[in-house]
């Protein structure tokens, strides 16, 4: 993958960004840009911000990111580590405060053609390698059943803005080979109805500035370093393999070239003695094996230095990727906090995307009349949570697996103290009952990382009971999710017998 360096690194290094780097990264804002087609200087592409990365650079970054994941084990380790933490082996969990809305979200989530529960790993991996995702939404006009179709990011040639605001993307221009380009409306909340509408979900991530319209691949800043690390290890392997071929220095004492030629002819050539054979000679012939140093010590240190830059750019601790011998337990624990926070940041972004996708499906059901325009927040154990009526989509959220696995007993004790504090605030009248319930629900999800239930949130609950509930819920999430999906697949009619599915597929 040595060709990556030709794109991102100039011919000579300097303490500040070179002109080539400014142009390639788009940081020059079009002042020094050169059109690779006709050579125009100082231009700015229509449909992108003043300092956005040029489209050809983004496309090369995406291509190299995919190649790195497929060919470079360190790149795969970085992406798979984030994927494992963000969506985890147990996947994501739907949180909903209304049973009717929960039914709609579950149907959308577990639709065999959507399979959002089983697609999380692939969806997130593609998003990190591409830096953005575009899902064309297909909605049945009669039933409001929603399905999605991924759009290749290479087909997106322009992002239009609403009123010129870079935070309000309005349309995506999609290229069609052999046909005219067409536009899709970006999904968003309608100011009049308060419901989400649109033709495509648009998620650009890892943007450098507010004015950027396109996302950038997660591996973009470390592609060169991944290439350097690969080169160092490859060169070491090549030299090690070459050093295994021994060279023999044969010295003939007191012989001129004629005598040397006669010795070689008598041996039958310059071949090395085969293993297990005998080479007979007198004291005038001296055989000395020659070996070359591999430079393993130097390359090992160089590899460690490069790996430090790779891990730093990826937001991971080096001992998470390799070389665990250099970190003891105390060092590992002290380095875990900033890493976990960065991983949590990526998870929060992804959960917001998945929540928006689920809320979009709910709003389509409201538009089709399958759900009322307002619903009441309820709890499976205690019933309605106040008298306030809210939009159905507001009752939906998506939670992910716990990033930092804490001690169950410590988590239970923290929740118990919080419950006692909430009880005091309720007694003093500084906190209302509905607000207290919402607070405890959020606290439970944050500390325990499992769906909220109101069975054990009383101030006099036993710590061991809460600890056991947390452990049981964590262990059962994956099994329950698999069983639920299997049950829904068995009970759901096929597309030919399901008018909702036919309606969405036809749309």
Characterise the protein shown here.
The protein is α+β, with helices and mostly antiparallel strands and about 500 residues long. Among the domains are: about 230-315, no CATH class; about 405-505, no CATH class. It has 15 helices and 14 strands. Strands 3-2-9 form a three-stranded antiparallel β-sheet. Strands 4-5-6 form a three-stranded antiparallel β-sheet, with no helix packed on it. The longest helix has about 40 residues, at about 330-365. It is elongated and about 110 Å long.
Brief descriptors of the model:
15 helices, three-stranded antiparallel beta sheet, 47% helix, 507 residues, alpha+beta, 15% strand
Number of helices: 15
What kind of sheet is the major sheet? 3 strands, antiparallel
Helix-and-strand structural type: alpha+beta
Strands of the widest sheet, in order across it, are 3-2-9
Provide a quick synopsis of the model.
With 507 residues, the protein is an alpha+beta fold. It is 47% helix and 15% strand.
How would you summarize the topology of this molecule?
Blueprint: H1 4-8, H2 19-25, H3 55-71, H4 73-86, E1 93-96, H5 99-110, H6 116-130, E2 132-139, E3 146-150, E4 156-162, E5 165-174, E6 182-185, E7 188-189, E8 196-197, E9 200-204, H7 223-243, E10 247-252, H8 257-267, E11 285-290, H9 296-314, H10 318-321, H11 329-367, E12 375-379, E13 383-390, E14 396-399, H12 408-428, H13 433-448, H14 463-491, H15 499-506
Antiparallel strand pairs: 1-14, 2-3, 2-9, 4-5, 5-6, 7-8, 10-11, 12-13
